[in-house]
Amino acid sequence: MSEPCLMTETINYLKEKIADLESNNKEYSKDMAVLKESHIETKLYVKQIFDSLAALTATLNAITDKPNKRWEQLISTIITVGITAGLTYLFTR
């Protein structure tokens, strides 16, 4: 008669394990939902960081191009003044 008692104990043990697994599954599902939400927020923050980085890069490029444009404008002005002075000298002679 110990065999039915052993089977009953085994069945009860398995029922407890199944209940534990179901409980763990519910907890894991909740954890996964939280992780999914956190992942979405992280993706949003990373996108904002990359957008800010792109804006900073554009600003930096604009700033580094300004001295070159100033020099080009200065040289253009010097050439224009030189040609005007030369033509003025030729025509007033």
Please describe what this structure looks like:
The protein has one helix at 2-92. By secondary structure, the protein is an all-alpha fold. The longest helix is centred in the middle third of the chain and has 91 residues, at 2-92.
Kindly list the characteristics that best describe this protein.
0% strand, 93 residues, mainly alpha, 1 helix
Number of helical stretches of at least 4 residues: 1
Overall structural class, as computed from helix and strand content, comes to mainly alpha
Helix fraction, binned, reads over 70%
Q: How much of the sequence is in beta strands?
A: under 5%
Radius of gyration: 40 Å
Mean pLDDT: 87
Tally of extended strands?
Answer: 0
Uncertain spans: none
Main beta sheet: strand number and arrangement? none
Encode the helix/strand succession as letters.
H
N-to-C CA distance: 136 Å
Shape: rod-shaped
Question: What's this model, at a glance?
Answer:
The termini are far apart. This protein is mostly helical and 93 residues long. The chain has one helix spanning 2-92.
Topology diagram in text:
Blueprint: H1 2-92
